[in-house]
Amino acid sequence: MFYPRIIFRLIHINWVLVSHxxxxxxxxxxxxxxxxxxxxxxxxxxxxxxxxPRAVRIRRALExxxxxxxxxxxxxxxxxxxxxxxxADELVKLQDRVPPFAAETARKIIESELGMxxxxxxxKFEPEPMASASVAQVHAAxxxxxxxxIVKVLRPDIEEGIQSDIGLLxxxxxxAEKFWVDAKRLRPMEVVAEFERSTxxxxxxxxxxxxxxxxxxxxxxxxxxxxxxxxxxxxxxxxMVMERxxxxxxxxxxxxxxxxxxxxxxxxxxxxxxxxxxxxxxxFHADMHPGNIFVDLPAKYIAVDFGIVGSLSLTDxxxxxxxxxxxxxRDYRKVAQMHVESGWVDSSTRIEEFESAIRSVCEPIFEKPxxxxxxxQLLLRLFQTARRFDMHVQPQLVLLQKTLLNxxxxxxxxxxxxxxxxxxxxxxxxxxxxxxxxKAKITKLFKQFPEVAEHFPEIPTLLFKTLDNAANSQKRAExxxxxxxxxxxxxxxxxxxxxxxxxxGAILISLAVLLx
Length: 516
Prior knowledge:
- The protein has helices at 4-19, 23-26, 43-47, 54-65, 67-77, 85-91, 103-114, 118-121, 158-179, 183-186, 188-201, 205-218, 253-258, 263-281, 314-328, 332-342, 351-362, 375-388, 398-414, 420-436, 438-453, 459-515; strands at residues 124-125, 131-132, 136-142, 148-154, 225-226, 239-243, 248-249, 284-285, 293-296, 300-303, 309-310.
- By secondary structure, it is of the alpha+beta class.
C-alpha cells in the first residue's frame, strides 16, 4: 500500500517537473491526465522559465529531485547515441557540476568527523569546492607535510532523501509485480534491492576508501590505470582524504586532442581495464562515467570515486566468460545452450529457435566499428528477444551491465572506429587459457596442497570412520531386508487366513440357506 510519505513524494516529483516547465511530461501520464486542464490555475504554470532550453530545464529538475535522479542523468549522459544532442550535452554537467552545498556546512562536517579543527588537520583548505556531484563534493587541501590532497565530504541529510526515493521504487516494484505481465521475468523487487544495496554503500566513505585501496593494490605498477592513495588518518564515514591527481577529464576530447592523447590506445585500454577488473580481479569500478575518469597523457587512465564497485560469484564469472567467448566466436548455439542450462530461459525452450533469434540480433553488429552500430536498435532487438523467450533478468548482473554500457559509451566518444569484439576476444582467450589449461589446474592443485596436507593426520581416523559407517550401513541394510522378508511373510499369512475365513463364512451361509 502507498504510505503518506510515498504519496507526498510523488506529488513533489510532479510539482518539480511542472515548476521547471516540464508539465507536458506530467500531464501526459495517465494519473494526471484528467486534471491537465486545471494546470492553468497553478502559479508554476505561469511562472515557469519558458525561455530556458528544454535540456537546461531537464537537468535542473533532476538536480532538484535528488541524488538518485542525478545518477540517472549521469548514466544517460554517457549515451549520446541514445539522446538528442542538446540533452546529452547538458546532462554532462551532472557528472561533477551539481550545485554545491555551503562551504561552512562542509567545514562543520569535516571538523565533527575528524574531531579536530580544519587548521589542525590541514595546512591549507580551499573553501570553494573543486567539484560537486550527487552524493558528495570535493575540496582541495594540503597536509602539514606538504602533500596535495582532496577532501571528499558527504552531502548533509542525504540519507533521508535517498531512503524516501528507494521506498517509492519498492512501491512501484510491488505494483509492477501485481499488474505487469513481464514482472516475473524482470524481477523488479530484486533489481530495486540490488540498487538499494549499491546506493547505500556509496554513503559510507570509509567503504569507498577501502574499495580504492583494493583497486590500487590490484593495479599497482600498472601502465594502464592509476588509483590515488588514501590517507586513512583523515578518513571517516562522512569524510575521505585522498591523493590529489592531475589529469585531463576524459570527457574533454578537444583538450585531449590538442595535448596529444592516443585515442585508439585509450579506447583499447578501457576495454582491457574492464575485462581485467571483471575476470582477473573479480572486483570492478561500477561508476565509470566520464566525471570519474581522467587521463595521464598520452594514454594512461586515472580513476576516482569508488563508492560503487561490483563483484561476481565464481559461477557467474566463469559462465559470463564462456558466454562472451562463444559470442565473440559467433557460436550462437553454445550461447543458447548456456542460457537454457543456467535457467536464464525456460528449459522447454527449443535450442534451435533460440539460437536463430540470437543470431539475428548479433550478426548485424559484428565486424563493425562502434560508430556504425545503432545501440538503440540493438537494445530494442535484445528486449524483444528477451520477452519472446521469457528471459529472466539477473539482478546480480545489473551493476556489470551498467558498467559495460559506460565503457561502450566511453569508447564511442574516444575512438568510434574501435572494434570492440576484436579488442576483447584475445583477453578472454588468454584468461581461459590461464584458468583452464592443464598447467593452470596443476598450479591450483599445488596452491591447495598445504591446506590438504593439514588434514593428512586425520585421514586414518576418517578412513576408519568411513569403513565403519559402511559396515554398519551394510548391517542395517541386511537387518532391514530381513525385517521386510518377515513382514512380507506375515502379510501373506494374514492374507491366507482372511481368504479361509471368507470361504468358511460363505459355506456356513450356504448351508443355512439350504437347511431352511
